[in-house]
Amino acid sequence: METIVIEGQNGNSTIIVDERIEEVAKYLPKKKLFIITDKNVENHYATVFPEAPFFSINPGEASKQLGYIESIYRWLLENNAHRNSFILGIGGGVVCDIAGFVASTYMRGVEFGFVSTSLLSQVDASVGGKNGVDLDGYKNIIGTINQPRFVLCDPRLLKTLPHEELVNGFAEMVKHALISDVKLFEHLEYDCNDLLQLNQRILSSHIAESIRIKARVVTADERESGIRKLLNFGHTWGHAVETLTGISHGKAVSIGMEFACRLSMKKGLISNREYLRVINLLQSFGLPTCMNIEPNKVFNVLEKDKKRNANSIDFVLLRGIGVPKIETMDFEELKKFVQNNNDET
Ligand SMILES: NC(=O)c1ccc[n+]([C@@H]2O[C@H](COP(=O)([O-])OP(=O)(O)OC[C@H]3O[C@@H](n4cnc5c(N)ncnc54)[C@H](O)[C@@H]3O)[C@@H](O)[C@H]2O)c1
Q1: Is the shortest distance between the CB of 128 and ligand 1 below 6 Å?
Q2: How far is Cα 217 from Cα 173, in angstroms, rounded to an integer?
Q3: Which of 45, 137, 185, 290 holds its CA 20 to 30 A away from the CA of 35?
Q4: Secondary structure letter of residue 51 according to DSSP
Q5: Cβ neighbours around 59 below 10 Å, total
Q6: Contact 127/214 with Cβ under 8 angstroms?
């Protein structure tokens, strides 16, 4: 078991890796407990939930809507939740985002924690204190930055996670290695098959490594004014692909990472060999690195990115595996690159 601490402006968050869900009671404060989960997680694990009332949302992104979560606020009121209650989210990224947002806003904020049940949530969504919901198709546009008191990551829970969802998590693990640690990238190359087979020892060690990277970045820049932007590696192009095609987040980020690496290679920042190593690793995890869509259409969506500047957008590129670089890319320059390299997207 390993613990990793994030030092947030409003308190610390302790992430416990390789602890069993059955042990969560040890980490709960002596407060009235309310659980938020989803119906899939409930079906698999309700029998090991701590004793408390729970609200089970419909699984999936469609539940991350302000309108939908009003029913959770009402449920809390009806069950006499007060400012000294504690909210525990047990689920993937959707549940954690909702539980964190509800807890941060109900009665101006109650304490909360997570049992993170998907790989993406363990290495990414439940780490870093961003909580939020969607509005009118804009993802995570309403939200808060507020650290959970603890996050429990039990890798055994991943045995029931659908393979497609597992792969989404691997995309973020590759991203973390690419932006910070060539050694970790090598370990991922070496351990790929064991990870796909859910070898628990190797999985735990990689989950902890990946969380450590995100925790370091978030502790240095909780509110994304500087280096937290590095976590957007692969996401700028990837989000546009996701919006346009509706493919899963992990697959879209994988395509976005290929694009960022190709751009890095074009700028002479990485070699063809490094580019191919990234592509090979992504493909070994079963992630796509190209897709049959018109790159100009992706570019048109990218131009509407909420994080754009007036005539440019900040792109995270690589100067080597594990060595990121934030580059402000003029839209004109980017458009030329897209048009001259439109054999793949
Ligand atoms: N707050 C952040 O910093 C941050 C970062 C990345 C992503 N996110 C958000 O996370 C969400 C995606 O998270 P996700 O990929 O975990 O999606 P998810 O929560 O929808 O989970 C994916 C699916 O797996 C099921 N599931 C989860 N754990 C399971 C288990 N152990 N066994 C069986 N089924 C299980 C869920 O019911 C769901 O159907 C998005 O809304 C995204 O915006 C937030």
Answers
A1: yes
A2: 14
A3: 137
A4: S
A5: 18
A6: yes
What is the chain's percent helix, strand, coil content, to nearest 5? 50, 20, 25
Structure tokens that stand for 78 in this block? 């009806």
Domain 163-340, what fold? Dehydroquinate synthase-like, alpha domain (1.20.1090)
What pTM did the predictor assign?
0.96
Percentage of residues in the chain with pLDDT exceeding 90?
89
Domain covering 2-160 in this structure, CATH number:
3.40.50.1970
Q: Residue 343's pLDDT is what?
A: 54
Q: Helix, strand, or coil here: 340?
A: helix
Number of the ligand 1 atom closest to the C-alpha atom of 130: 1
User: For residue range 184-231, what is the model confidence (pLDDT) as tens digits?
Assistant: 999 999 999 999 999 999 999 999 999 999 999 999 999 888 899 999
Domain edges within the chain: 2-160, 163-340
Catalytic residue, candidates 149, 214, 229, 251: 214
The reported pLDDT for the residue numbered 45 is 98
What gap in Å lies between CA 86 and CA 80, rounded to an integer? Answer: 12
Nearest-CA residue for atom 2 of ligand 1: 125
